[in-house]
Amino acid sequence: MIEIVFAGRSNVGKSTLFSQLFGVKVRRGKRPGTTIKPNQIKFKDLLVTDLPGFGYISGVDKEFNERVKDFIVEYIEKNAERIILAVQVVDGKSFLEIAERWERRGYIPVEVEMFEFLNEVCSKVFLAVNKMDKVDNPNEVLDAIALKLGMTPPWKDWTHVIYPISAKEGKINNLREAIKRRLIEIGRSDLIPVL
Ligand code: GDP
Q1: Which pick of 23, 126, 132, 174 has the fewest CB atoms within 10 Å?
Q2: Parallel, antiparallel, or unpaired: how do β-strands 83-91 and 125-130 relate?
Q3: What is this model's ipTM?
Q4: For residue 146, what is the domain's CATH number?
């Protein structure tokens, strides 16, 4: 069994991306912040996992958010051997504002923490920067996001890691092609039709 996981803060557009990529509507929880079960689909021996959204959701208690984070970390650690790719999805429109808000309060932003963790544990990590249709100055924003996540700008030096997309508009081909290349890299071009 091999696995691709998708991780991201709630509301970044992970479900939208997932259905665009794999042509399936994922089962949604009753309401955000009530279920921790990941959504999974299987193609032959490829498991694709949409991990629960993490980060603060208004109206949901802190303890639940911590449990979601713990679940994700444990899930990834437990399955690290078979995870051939982790895709972290962020919202290009709100990433910097949210990250800077947490930094001002003296915390490491959860998305920064998650990206570091994924890079420590997974053999390959992509950063999908979604909602680019709402971003007015893409290069500036992508440079700043790269910097926050430990990648020295310009972001264009990191096009093997950073994929600006708009899931809602179906503009995800750069990411789709990169996932295909990853499958080829590990000798599983037979799985390309999945995408
Ligand atoms: P999830 O919580 O990460 O699974 O997020 P969803 O897929 O449910 O999307 C959250 C909201 O963002 C929905 O209102 C989507 O329509 C919207 N959304 C998703 N992708 C995009 C995008 O590329 N651009 C814009 N403008 N909105 C998006």
Answers
A1: 23
A2: parallel
A3: 0.99
A4: 3.40.50.300
